[in-house]
Amino acid sequence: MISVNNVSVLFGDYALLDSISFLVNKRDRIGLTGRNGAGKSTLLKILAGVQEPSEGSVSVPSGLKIGYLPQTKVYAEGKTVRKEAETAFNDVLDLQEELECLHRELGERTDYESDSYMALIDKLNVKTEMLHMRGADNMDGEVEVVLKGLGFRQEDLERRCEEFSGGWRMRIELAKILLARPDVFLLDEPTNHLDIESISWLESFLQGYPGAVVLVSHDRAFLNNITTRTIEISLGKIYDYKVSYTRFTELRKERIEQQRRAYENQQKQIKDTEDFIERFRYKATKAVQVQSRIKQLEKIERIEVEQEDSARINVRFQPAVRSGDIVVCGRDLSKAYGDHVVLHEVNLDVLRGEKVAFVGRNGEGKTTLVKMIMDQIPYEGNLKIGYNVNIGYFAQNQADLLDPSLSVLDTVDQVAVGEIRKKIRDILGAFLFSGEDVDKKVKVLSGGERTRLAMVRLLLEPYNVLILDEPTNHLDMRTKDVLKDALKKFEGTVIVVSHDRDFLLGLADKVYEFANKGIKEYLGGVAHFLEAKKLECFREYEQMHPRKLQQENVVEEESVSENKIAFEERKQWNKEIKKSEVKIEKLEGEIADLEQKIGEAEGKMAEGVINDELLKTYDEMKKHLEACMEEWEEENGHLEELKARN
Question: Which residue spans adopt a coiled-coil conformation according to this UniProt entry (predicted)?
């Protein structure tokens, strides 16, 4: 559907993206991955048409509908949540107006046997079908199902958008995109502002969606559950894998190792050549050979090795004094802000050594209960902290509590004692502070960098209980793995508030779900919680579509019985469209196969395997690919002409 052709994004001499090409096919489920700053968000913007590449082009068939969710957005104001979400159906309102015009024109016509009259009836049938396919019969139901699936309550739907925080308003934008039913979803970190239930609902929605999905996410579970293809951006190039994220990480390690061997071989070849030039530079009898070797050196395309964080940083929390058996005991705990009751008579017990997860929709009281345990807010009920308990607390605003005048290194050096001081730089490296970064002042760090630094400080202090409120925000996958491993090895007690299922799986052995002013305990960990939860909103959504399909079939049968001639014309038209679509699909498969083979050939050449047969095959494949791409573009044009007939 979308063809990216030799796209480059240049900043002076630096190429963020360097002549990349690939196809986005129907029903593709693509995860874009790569280091921070590799160009993932930039590529999404180019696909969405909101940014132009420095070089190259993106071919998008006319009429293709794209739904793009950026990381940051200027939000609309002035409407209720429901009314704002309904703007996704503006095309439905336009269709309804167009149908009214067609009905009026039909009523004024008397040339019932003419070709133009039949064409008008056929157009009316097509527009009616389109209207039913867009869910015009149940717009209100669709809006409620999607908004509730993304975490809004019934009473929220009539509140004005500006009453909500930025995270909730991003959910409204996401709802509008889902309701618009585009041909391609382009989603940049869509789970950033979602809780665990909303993420599960969104997964289910996207898994059953008939269009294509291209997404950027640091949520490994979300990627694995949705994507079947992974495109990595590294050093300006792309590597296209027809596999899910976890399988990609395995294949990537193999590729890096091959790349490293090719690099070493090339370096040896370069050194040997340079040695030859240096040895015989001033010998007249070797002048021709020396000049030949100099030209060879100039022509060599230098292999770059991607920086691979292969070393596993062994990070441990500092040992602390053993606490009593009961760490936290709460009975009949209640908290209200005025008339708004957040928690009502909840009970919980946290025992020494337990790893407990607080989960649930935003606003249900998870952070409120944490603040009650930390004695930061007043509350009703009885809450006891156990004997010898020393709590290390990571709040969502922990980054704001750092001393802005200190450097990164000094900030952690203040709390590091004993042998751990020898590992400070390694630990900072594990949390993405390396080289000159450790000398930066806290005041110049971004919000994400401050959050990571606050987490490092927590690692270095001797606590026997850790309470972490959304600790994985702003952490990449590798850093989350480092933190998770450290928490699993931690011998004390952990209470963690998080919506990151991959982070919680295998870590939490008990779950408290927050809902309806209370909490519910699940002893089987996060997997048991996810299994037990019934996502009723999505079941409603699934049940809604069979009814709509039946309604569409009834409409189609009525249309056919009214005019058999229009039916036959439409049947032939559909056959031609289907034939064109099959040809396009076949070409897309051939293009994908050629791109893979070309990539394999380039890999061999990068390793130094170059011969006449390989070069000949490589040139032939490149020419064949170019011909296929031209044929694909021509056939897409033909398909657009067919569709334009009606």
Answer: 246-276, 570-642
Residue 387 included in any domain = yes
Look up residue 519 and give its DSSP letter: E
Measured in Å, how far apart are the chain's first and last C-alpha atoms? Answer: 21
Q: Tally the domains of the chain.
A: 2
Domain contains 141: no
Let me know whether 388 and 504 are in one domain.
Answer: yes
**E-only strand ranges, 263-396:** 326-337, 340-351, 355-360, 380-385, 391-394
Q: Letter for the amino acid at 493?
A: T
Residues 388 and 499 in one domain: yes
Indicate if 509 and 595 belong to the same structural domain: no
Q: Does any domain span residue 137? A: no
Backbone φ and ψ of 617, nearest 5°: -60, -40
Do the Cβ atoms of 541 and 205 come closer than 8 Å?
yes
21 within a domain of the structure (yes/no):
no
The amino acid present at 248, given as its one-letter code, is F
CA gap 627, 642 in Å, rounded:
23
> What is the total residue count of the chain?
646
Q: Which of 523, 548, 573 is the last residue of a domain?
A: 523
Phi, psi values for residue 71, rounded to 5°: -70, -35
Domain coverage including residue 518: 326-523
* Residue 518 near residue 344, CB atoms below 8 Å: yes
3-state secondary structure of 229: strand
CA dist., res. 449 & res. 408, Å (int)? 10
Phi, then psi, of 544 in degrees rounded to 5: -70, -35
Q: What are phi and psi of 201, to 5 degrees?
A: -65, -45
Name the pairing type of β-strands 391-394 and 66-69.
unpaired
Residue 193 CB partners (closer than 8 Å, separation 6+) = 166, 167, 168, 170, 171
pTM for the structure as a whole: 0.65
- Provide the 10 A C-beta neighbour count for residue 108: 7
Assess whether pLDDT exceeds 70 at residue 278.
yes
Place of tokens 């950033």: 192
Centroid of chain to Cα 481: 18
Place of tokens 């999505």: 538
Angle at which helices 564-606 and 115-133 cross, to 10°? 60
Cα separation, 334 vs 554, in Å, equals 54
If phi > 0 it is left, if psi is from -120 to 50 it is alpha, else beta; for residue 418 that is left
Q: What is the pLDDT of residues 367-391, one digit of tens each?
A: 999 999 999 999 999 999 999 999 9
Strands (E), 166-211: 184-188
Whole-angstrom CA distances from 98 to 63, 200, 637 are 17, 38, 26
Whole-number percent of the chain with pLDDT over 70:
88
Place of tokens 């089987």: 524
- pLDDT value at position 383? 94
